[in-house]
Amino acid sequence: xxxxxxxxxxxxxGIATVLFxxxxxxxxxxxxxxxxxxxxxHFMLGSYNYQDVTPEANRRALxxxxxxxxxxxxxxxxxxxxxxxxxxxxxxxxxNGNVTYNSGSWVSKIPLDEGVYYVYGLMPGSEAGKVxxxxxxxxxxxxxxxxxxxxxxxTNSDVCTIVGVKGSTTAxxxxxxxxxxxxxxxxxxxxxxxxxxxxxxLYAALQLNMTISPEYNALRTIKLTKLTLKSNSVAKTVNxxxxxxxxxxxxxxxxxxxxxxxxxxxxxVEIYKGEELILEETDDLVFLACTAPISTNTQFVxxxxxxxxxxxxxxxxxxxxxxxxxxxxxxxxTRGQKYTFNLTVNPTYLYVxxxxxxxNPTITVN
Length: 366
Description:
By secondary structure, the chain is mainly beta. The protein has helices at residues 2-29, 69-72, 214-217, and strands at 38-48, 51-52, 66-68, 82-89, 92-102, 105-111, 116-123, 130-136, 139-151, 154-155, 160-168, 185-187, 194-201, 204-212, 220-231, 238-244, 258-261, 269-278, 285-291, 299-310, 315-327, 337-346, 362-365. It is 10% helix and 49% strand.
């Protein structure tokens, strides 16, 4: 009887041991999820210049070909600006976030596995209220549809989309990188940590060149403090759909974007506000504004705020304002084109120096 009891106890102990070992085996097979490695990527943004509709109005030579975006638009402040970047693979968006410009460069740590990604994006990322990206034919290798909502019809931002991608192991400069339109592929394993992005304009541009007449400059100094624009458009916000299709022919991967708009009064947009800028006779103050290429954008009201000083530096009048109407072609605006206006500050009367109008100049539009 004693041996029988011991035998039962041994069997029970054996079963418990097997269960225990089985439990250990099950626990050992459960692995912690592998974290995606972080890669520090350096983005180099370049763009073609706007096509000048009125080249004779420009007083300065424009850069040819595509150049670094920071050099192309020196009047548009980039510090703190963001690039909305989509790193995609197969049917998924692996990364959707903003890459911010700081201290002269676009750098961000992004979680990426090895493999080929297709890079799409919007510049600047802060300009749109919402951006949605969907693959074409169930694979981002075939292209993407970018739905952009909540854009301002007039802005001081150059609204662009990525049209070409090229990975590199060094910061070689755009002149030494064979980047092509219509190529969106980036190999995270073999293409290095420098990603060159060729971007193109979704908006049209208005360039405002401001000077002061020699006659008036001999009598008064004008210092600009604020410049605003308002369109006659009824659009408060603009929605845009961009179809991006890869190609191997170095051609633009999209046609004219599809546009829709709200029907509320357009708001006034600040093109410049800050420290006093002195108007010179020959060295223009150059401002760049961008506007959605919608047919109702045919006229803009420009408002300038400025201070008037005598030639001894004494403040004569503060916070003066002048309004001008800028008329555009009746056929509407074209994406990627630039419309230039030369603006000259003149006194109303020069022959009566004591006349108050000497201190209340007008602005002539050419």
